[in-house]
């Protein structure tokens, strides 16, 4: 392992001197660092990654109409996703003590605001008059900006599910084209409405009786700051409550090198304009505020995908035409959102979900206290499965949750947390503490206790697993800064699962730790190194024993990322990842070049990977801009891509990307209906964006 590791590191630094790429977005690195933790778990209780570009849309909106730092509240500042709770608290205290910012450059005087953070914020924020402007309903309609977006993607090689002659019962019903059409109108933080239509690869675009509609159709109308009505949501919207113990549908990160960003904070109601088909509500919601009291109420009626099962109870009961007993229907929810085959079509819109909830929040000068409740009712009882680890999974027609959450600041200390209970009385608790030990040192502690039987439908809290329940743990993080060029961050997390989990057949525990070092020699160059250690439980079969036993797999991951400008127009970025443990080794080397030439932006990248068959390494931003996609590379091969962006005019831009993965010597790529014969997989992505 040592020689291969030295070779990869040497190759990485040699390429730094030769080429050039664009500055990284912080969210890309955080996605990659948390990827293996969530995506390698495929149990029923672990939902798949959300198809949600909410964060990208939020920042894109602020790039057009900047956020006013003198009027933004804590939720809006957190919504940028660029600051931790201590930095948000420091800005609010600075405003309270010294008044509104006179200039954006005054941010340098705010404690905890170093030049790298200020550079990240500059494209999205401004320092206005400090007075909240008054807009009429006519302004809401006329002063905003319209945007029309069309996305197209396709894999050029034909997968097994598209081949002619395949049995109609198991082949895909539609074409390999992936299409998204999205219209959205935005007027800053005051108004948003839009329409989304999407067809995944393998699905049919046309619906019976409505040939102009996609497989998925979404719409929303969202208004804010209309007198006492702080927010009004109609159509599709998300609900985010507390620290996610009972409800969190918005975009969020887990453990990463941003060790201080552990707190969830958002407006309760948010518009939903993404293409995901599971993590949102459809109905109406309203937030009303008077002085320091705010009340939110929402209702939703949705048809979710699910598999219906027939069960027999009360043997001997007489039913006309049935000698076996009384028959009831049960359902198992499906969050994938695919409708490609006849069997997947049978799952469509089978489960009717009714949701109602309320939040009452009292706001203090430097914090808040809130009481929350949410209930879901289903037309058919939820079925939890027969496996022993699913003993405490959701079942029945009703899911009830209630909680109280708080957030308070005092000087350089910030407390936050949430205490929750489900309909059966099982508790869950999350409490966090952040403190600025000085101008260069910050610390965070976070404790969580989730009863083994605690369950919530859309819970998503900070922890080893975002799914809430069956986890206890303590997280500690430290961040140190030397000037504006050096940053050292580290965390350690010790966790336990008091009950069984998917692929873990006994109560278990583990450890996760990370060390991160960043150097910023100038405004456009950066180098960071990350080391992560994970000890996670998993079932292992040890010969000659016939049964499986639980053992802790130890893994080490080392990654390096560098950004280097060649000149004012060309930038290079390189990444290296190496993972080893349990006798398996994985390596990846990636580099990308981007050039800016007038209205053109040209880019190209190449990655080489060599991993164990059961392991995988991840790269972010390998798809459409802002789609939060993560590409998994497993086996041995290489991947190349080239992309072109042309800005035709101020409101019209075109984007094209070609990419190809090659697995030398492989007879096929993928499995099942996604299997492609040969050693190559080629994809084309196109996007047209028009604003006016």
UniProtKB/TrEMBL annotation:
SUPFAM superfamilies: RuvA domain 2-like (SSF47781). This is Helix-hairpin-helix domain-containing protein. It comes from Chitinophaga chungangae. Residues 1-20 form the signal peptide. The keyword Chloroplast does not apply. The lineage of its organism: Bacteria, Pseudomonadati, Bacteroidota, Chitinophagia, Chitinophagales. Residues 28-44 have a biased composition (Basic and acidic residues). Residues 28-51 are annotated as: Disordered. Keywords: Signal.
């Amino acid at each position: 392992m040592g020689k291969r590791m030295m070779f990869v590191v040497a190759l990485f630094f040699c390429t730094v001197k030769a080429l050039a790429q664009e500055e990284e977005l912080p969210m890309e690195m955080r996605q990659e660092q948390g990827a293996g933790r969530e995506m390698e778990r495929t149990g029923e209780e672990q939902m798949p990654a959300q198809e949600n570009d909410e964060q990208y849309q939020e920042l894109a909106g602020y790039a057009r109409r900047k956020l006013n730092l003198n009027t933004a509240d804590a939720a809006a500042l957190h919504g940028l996703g660029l600051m931790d709770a201590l930095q948000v608290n420091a800005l609010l205290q600075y405003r309270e003590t010294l008044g509104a910012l006179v200039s954006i450059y005054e941010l340098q005087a705010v404690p905890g605001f170093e030049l790298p953070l200020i550079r990240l914020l500059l494209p999205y924020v401004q320092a206005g008059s400090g007075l909240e402007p008054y807009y009429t309903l006519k302004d809401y309609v006329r002063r905003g900006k319209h945007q029309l977006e069309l996305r197209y993607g396709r894999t050029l090689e034909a997968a097994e599910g598209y081949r002619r002659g395949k049995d109609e019962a198991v082949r895909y019903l539609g074409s390999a084209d992936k299409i998204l059409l999205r219209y959205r109108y935005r007027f800053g933080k005051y108004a948003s409405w839009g329409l989304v239509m999407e067809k995944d690869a393998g699905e049919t675009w046309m619906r019976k009786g409505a040939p102009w509609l996609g497989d998925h159709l979404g719409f929303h109308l969202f208004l804010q700051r209309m007198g006492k009505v702080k927010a009004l949501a109609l159509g599709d919207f998300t609900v985010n409550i507390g620290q996610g113990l009972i409800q969190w549908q918005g975009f969020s990160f887990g453990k990463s090198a941003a060790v201080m960003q552990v707190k969830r904070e958002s407006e309760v109601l948010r518009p939903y304009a993404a293409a995901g088909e599971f993590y949102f509500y459809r109905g109406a919601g309203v937030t009303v505020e008077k002085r320091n009291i705010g009340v939110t109420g929402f209702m939703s009626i949705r048809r979710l995908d699910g598999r219906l099962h027939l069960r027999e109870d009360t043997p001997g009961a007489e039913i006309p035409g049935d000698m076996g007993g009384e028959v009831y229907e049960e359902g198992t929810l499906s969050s994938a959102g695919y409708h490609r085959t006849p069997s997947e079509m049978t799952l469509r819109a089978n489960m009717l979900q009714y949701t109602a909830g309320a939040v009452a929040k009292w706001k203090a000068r430097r914090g808040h206290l809130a009481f929350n409740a949410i209930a879901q009712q289903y037309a058919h009882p939820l079925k939890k499965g027969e496996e022993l680890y699913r003993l405490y999974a959701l079942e029945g027609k009703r899911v009830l949750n209630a909680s109280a959450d708080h957030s308070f600041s005092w000087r350089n200390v910030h407390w936050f947390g949430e205490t929750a209970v489900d309909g059966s009385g099982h508790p869950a608790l999350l409490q966090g503490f952040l403190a600025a030990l000085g101008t260069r040192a910050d610390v965070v502690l976070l404790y969580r206790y989730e009863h083994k039987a605690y369950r919530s439908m859309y819970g998503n809290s900070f922890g080893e697993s975002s799914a809430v329940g069956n986890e206890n743990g303590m997280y500690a993080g430290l961040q140190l800064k030397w000037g504006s060029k050096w940053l050292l961050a580290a965390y350690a997390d010790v966790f336990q699962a008091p009950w069984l989990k998917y692929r873990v057949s006994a109560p278990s525990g583990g450890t996760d730790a990370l060390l991160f070092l960043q150097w910023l020699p100038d405004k456009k160059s950066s180098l960071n190194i990350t080391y992560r250690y994970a000890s996670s439980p998993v079932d292992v079969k040890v010969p000659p024993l016939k049964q499986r036993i639980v053992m802790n797999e130890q893994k080490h991951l080392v990654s390096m990322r560098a950004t280097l400008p060649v000149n004012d127009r060309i930038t290079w970025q390189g990444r290296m990842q190496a993972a080893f443990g349990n006798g398996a080794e994985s390596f990846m080397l990636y580099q990308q070049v981007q050039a800016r030439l007038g209205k053109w932006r040209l880019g190209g990248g190449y990655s080489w990977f060599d991993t164990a068959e059961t392991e995988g390494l991840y790269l972010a931003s390998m798809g459409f801009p802002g789609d939060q996609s993560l590409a998994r590379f497993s086996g041995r091969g290489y991947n190349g891509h080239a992309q072109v962006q042309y800005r035709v005019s101020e409101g019209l831009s075109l984007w094209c990307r070609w990419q190809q993965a090659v697995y030398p010597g492989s007879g096929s790529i993928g499995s099942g209906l996604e299997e492609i014969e040969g050693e190559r997989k080629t994809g084309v992505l196109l996007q047209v964006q028009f604003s006016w």
